[in-house]
Amino acid sequence: MTLSQLExxxxxxxxxxxxxxxxxxxTTQSAVSxxxxxxxxxxxxxLVHRDAAGxxxxxxxxxxxxxxxxxxxxxxTVTQELQDASALKTGTLRIGSFxxxxxxxxxxxxxxxxxxxxxGVQVRIDEESDEVVDEWLVQKRVxxxxxxxxxxxxxxxxxxxxxxxxxLPARHPLARKASVPIAAFSGLDFVLSEAGGxxxxxxxxxxxGARPEVLYRFTQILSILAFVxxxxxxxxxxxxxxxxxxxxxxxxxxxxxxxxxxxxxxxDIAKLSPVARAFWDLAAREAAK
Length: 289
Prior knowledge:
Elements: H1 3-15, H2 18-25, H3 29-43, E1 48-51, E2 54-57, H4 59-82, E3 91-97, H5 100-103, H6 107-117, E4 121-127, H7 130-139, E5 144-149, E6 155-169, E7 180-181, E8 189-193, H8 198-207, E9 213-218, H9 221-229, E10 235-238, E11 249-255, E12 259-266, H10 274-288
Parallel strand pairs: 3-4, 3-5, 7-11, 8-9
Antiparallel strand pairs: 1-2, 5-12, 6-10, 6-11, 6-12
Helix pairs in contact: 1-2, 1-3, 1-4, 2-3, 6-10
């Protein structure tokens, strides 16, 4: 078993395809197949299922995958430390981001500043819902990830405070209010985000006795805004997840207000790689401004 073989297993699990795994690793599909066969032969077990739907891990493959991520992360940390980590001249950092809140409002200026200080460090960012980013952290697919704070599973650096707002057509009667009672959503045609905010929004409505008519479920904020702008529905989202309101749309605070905190998380701050610790410290300085 070699680190390169473990990297092949990780790439297959994430790409779910031999061809995409090969592209991700910068190698050939036959090389990926050869590395997998060597792993399976060495352990005497089947590690992946292959069918028309793609590639999936067997039970044995899932167990090895967890250890593979630990071993490759440890190897990357050791490599960084040996390659002049004190000056942070090289290395790779993987970060999980959950949409506009972090990808648009936080990461761009921070990443630009980090690259100026550490131009030789490669930062890779994957974006998904906040629930998936949580899973990536637990699985060690990413070393740092943006989360809704607090979260007892992780060490969390609090970054920004946000709140959920009502998204309304500009001519809707509720748009004339300074804040919108949550109960006022009852009976209104509603578009629900199927991204990270959805599982949070539904309990907010339920706790305050609001029962809107959820006619539309979208994953894209722009789709939600388009339906609201045309008067087809109202909605709700975290303010930092939203762009400036387009013409015909207004945002209003909720009553009672529904705050949320966003933080940068890791499994164990004491075990961060040098490059991850450098980014963590930069985020702490930026958040304190």
